[in-house]
Specification:
globular, alpha/beta, six-stranded parallel sheet, 12% strand, 322 residues, TIM Barrel, 9 strands, three-stranded parallel sheet
């Protein structure tokens, strides 16, 4: 089983073919960043059409058994998720509504402050809202939606881990203590202490090939990435490490700018260009084949490779989804 806990490529058949060529069992896809509930429902409708039109390649995952069934049928299970809690519009009833519509993962925040907590672009003093943020966590726990902290700042992340009765996830980020502060978006990465806190509550971090947060940036080699995998395993344990590539391709610069600034800014808050090419060894999901082989060549046992490839994510999904 191979699970990628975050991709945000433009959804089209060519990507679905690449998932199958890379033997990817499940992919968590983004259907909202800044969108409100109505806009998000439109995207949900588009995904239902894509699933129907590409039923020979992809199926929707609402349960872990759906993922296992996709593997048996040589298809890729699609897990629908949010990279922000904006579609909930601070209304707890919308959490269960989107759960019924198939959403299984949601980040509390994207990069900025919202009603739930603080994103990674905010000051470290800002944290989880003691009113809406705490109640949102309780509601997500109750209905079975996995809490994602990938873009939250450290304080919000610590407080969410403590507040949640279920394991939480960092679907796509890297350890800043390993990668260093020279990464273009080092603020996106997580401290070793935070990752240890995540592991202590049985959570998982998805390590990312995204050049702006990866070791050596655009020059990240497959061995650089493997070094980071081994570092993370050594520091937080084999049971708490997975993949969340954050791979994206197919979007124009204006769409990438929308991710950066939404409607709340006239210009990007950080001086980033558009698409940054992923390393050659991971220019599509086909790159997972060589990555898993390299991890085993470098001494990781088949059981350990299986855990990192997807077993750990399957365990967290089982614990969080009801």
């Amino acid at each position: 089983m191979l699970i990628d806990a975050l991709q945000f490529s433009k959804p089209e058949r060519a990507r679905f073919v690449e998932w199958r060529e890379g033997n990817v069992t499940a992919v968590h896809v983004t259907i909202a960043i800044w969108e409100d509930s109505t806009e998000t429902m439109r995207e949900l409708g588009k995904w239902q059409r894509r699933l129907e039109e590409n039923a020979d390649l992809i199926v929707q995952a609402r349960t872990v058994e759906d993922i296992a069934a996709a593997e048996r049928e040589n298809k890729t299970a699609v897990i629908l998720g949010f990279q922000n809690s904006s579609p909930f519009e601070s209304d707890l009833d919308l959490v269960s509504a989107f759960y019924e519509a198939g959403v299984r993962i949601a980040q509390l925040t994207y990069n900025t402050q919202n009603s739930a907590g603080a994103g990674c672009w905010e000051d470290d003093e800002a944290g989880l809202s003691k009113t809406y943020g705490l109640n949102l966590i309780r509601e997500m726990n109750r209905i079975g939606m996995l809490i994602d902290l990938s873009h939250c700042n450290e304080k919000t992340s610590y407080q969410a881990i403590e507040a949640s009765d279920c394991p939480v996830a960092i679907t796509h980020a890297n350890p800043v203590d390993c990668v260093g502060m020279d990464a273009e978006l080092a603020v996106r990465n997580k401290s070793k202490d935070l990752l240890k806190a995540l592991a202590q509550r049985n959570g998982v971090v998805g390590l990312s090939m995204y050049p702006r947060i990866a070791p050596n940036g655009v020059n990240c080699s497959i061995d650089d990435f493997c070094d980071m995998v081994f570092w993370t395993v050594e520091n937080i344990g084999i049971d708490h490490v997975g993949f969340g590539s954050d791979f994206y391709i197919g979007y124009a610069d204006e769409e990438v700018l929308w991710w950066r600034q939404g409607r709340w800014s006239r210009t990007s808050m950080i001086p980033l260009t558009g698409y940054t090419p992923f390393p050659r060894w991971f220019d599509s999901s086909r790159g997972y084949t060589d990555l898993l082989a390299r991890l085993e060549q470098r001494g990781m046992s088949p059981a350990e490779v299986s855990a990192v490839a997807g077993g750990n994510w399957a365990r967290v999904f089982s614990a969080a989804w009801k």
